[in-house]
Recover the amino acids of this structure.
């Protein structure tokens, strides 16, 4: 299985995949070739692995069996690695129904998920109820607010070239293409990528043969009439892999086997683009650190935040991949050893989960967050300062990024009521998440053990 890798996790993932017996890394960048002292073939990729826009994880997309194999390899990185299959993979073709508009585009019903089609990509006017055939050009991570980006043009690609259905045949971007033994499939035009400049004639011929075969399969799957909504092609897949804090440190170990790596390399790079550049500079000038060196939380946060006076959101990930922002508050205390305290003013209405206490005007929530801890407490107080209850959320290890505290909620929680009564809640929801395949059993067992420890501590 040929795999291409791009983004901030490239060195570590290349090492993990390169060391395996089932995957070959292709189309590697010049820095990766130098770092591994390997040539890495310039060949068509069956699977593409790329860092997500927010640097929280990677998207694995391509041939369905290959995506499954690579995603399974990544799931083993750490106990807090989570993965979700996308119902609208990149490259899949749908017959869709226009359900409305949003900004300069149409919202589409793809069946199990919504898609988005910019108006500037279509020639005809679209209105609600219209049926349209589209291809997913870019899938969207489940923790992202975006919908899958769709396009009416259908194409197939493998990193070296694309075949575009109905495209112009006047592309001369690769002069060597004229000497290849195979022509693009009739009705499709080839578009060569820059990476193809370094490929051999045999690789280019294989590229075109591969794309012609895929184009034929796509054509065979397309009915004459548009009947929406339905998915028409099944050979492509996209899986989103989210790396928790422990997973990022496991990636550090994989990278350290190849090149100089500081403790928390990937944790720092996931924070901001500026922090990512600072890591590269620090490693180039000062070298790496051993695995038992402490994570430089103070240095990172003093430079990039969060610090006193900053506003931080609670990025409450769900085991099904969604991200819910519980609210934003002010950092009122900063501990350079790894913690912050955040205060939020609550809006009235409803009740506090599990506490059964009414939310009133003037209530304040005080949340203490510590980097790497598997839980965090929130104390709710009224306008008079009276404690109204404490909610302890059990989650994957907390990461304190400059603008958000990020983790994935593990359902089971512990509450302490105003009268001192301690109650453990939502074990059933965790069991359901395990049964649904959203939470691995090892992670669920860790959550139960953490909940038991918190329960005992509060009860004592």
């Amino acid at each position: 299985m040929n795999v291409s890798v791009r983004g901030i996790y490239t060195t570590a993932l290349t090492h993990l995949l390169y060391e395996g017996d089932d995957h070959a890394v292709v189309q590697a960048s010049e820095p990766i070739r130098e770092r591994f002292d390997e040539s890495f073939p310039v060949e068509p990729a069956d699977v593409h692995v790329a860092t997500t826009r927010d640097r929280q994880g990677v998207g694995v997309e391509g041939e369905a069996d290959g995506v499954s194999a690579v995603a399974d390899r990544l799931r083993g990185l750490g106990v807090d690695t989570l993965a979700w299959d996308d119902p609208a993979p990149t490259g899949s073709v749908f017959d869709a129904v226009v359900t409305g508009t949003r900004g300069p585009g149409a919202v589409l019903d793809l069946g199990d998920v919504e898609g988005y089609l910019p108006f500037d990509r279509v020639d005809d006017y679209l209105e609600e109820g219209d049926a349209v055939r589209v291809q997913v050009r870019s899938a969207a991570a489940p923790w992202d607010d975006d919908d899958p980006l769709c396009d009416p043009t259908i194409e197939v690609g493998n990193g070296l070239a694309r075949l575009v259905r109905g495209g112009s045949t006047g592309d001369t971007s690769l002069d060597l293409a004229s000497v290849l033994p195979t022509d693009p499939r009739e009705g499709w035009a080839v578009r060569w990528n820059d990476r193809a400049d370094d490929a051999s004639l045999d690789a280019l011929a294989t590229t075109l043969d591969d794309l012609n075969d895929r184009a034929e399969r796509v054509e065979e799957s397309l009915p004459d009439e548009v009947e929406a909504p339905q998915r028409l092609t099944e050979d492509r897949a996209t899986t989103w892999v989210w790396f928790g804090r422990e997973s990022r440190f496991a990636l550090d170990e994989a990278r350290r086997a190849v090149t100089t790596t500081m403790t928390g390399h990937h944790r720092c790079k996931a924070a901001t683009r500026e922090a990512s550049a600072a890591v590269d500079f620090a490693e180039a000038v000062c070298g790496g650190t051993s695995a038992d060196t402490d994570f430089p939380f103070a240095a990172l946060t003093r430079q990039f935040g969060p610090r006193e006076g900053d506003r931080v959101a609670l990025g409450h990930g769900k085991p099904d991949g969604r991200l819910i922002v519980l609210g934003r508050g002010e950092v009122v205390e900063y501990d350079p050893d790894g913690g912050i305290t955040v205060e939020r003013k609550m809006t009235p209405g409803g009740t506090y989960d599990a506490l059964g206490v009414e939310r009133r005007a003037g209530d304040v929530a005080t949340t203490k967050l510590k980097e790497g801890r598997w839980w965090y407490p929130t104390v709710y107080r009224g306008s008079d300062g009276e404690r109204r209850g404490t909610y302890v959320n059990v989650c994957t290890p907390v990461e304190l990024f400059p603008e958000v505290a990020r983790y994935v909620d593990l359902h089971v929680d512990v509450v302490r009521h105003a009268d001192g009564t301690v109650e453990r809640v939502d074990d059933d929801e965790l069991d359901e998440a395990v049964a649904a395949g959203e939470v691995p059993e090892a992670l669920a067992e860790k959550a139960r053990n953490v909940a038991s420890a918190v329960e005992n501590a509060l009860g004592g």
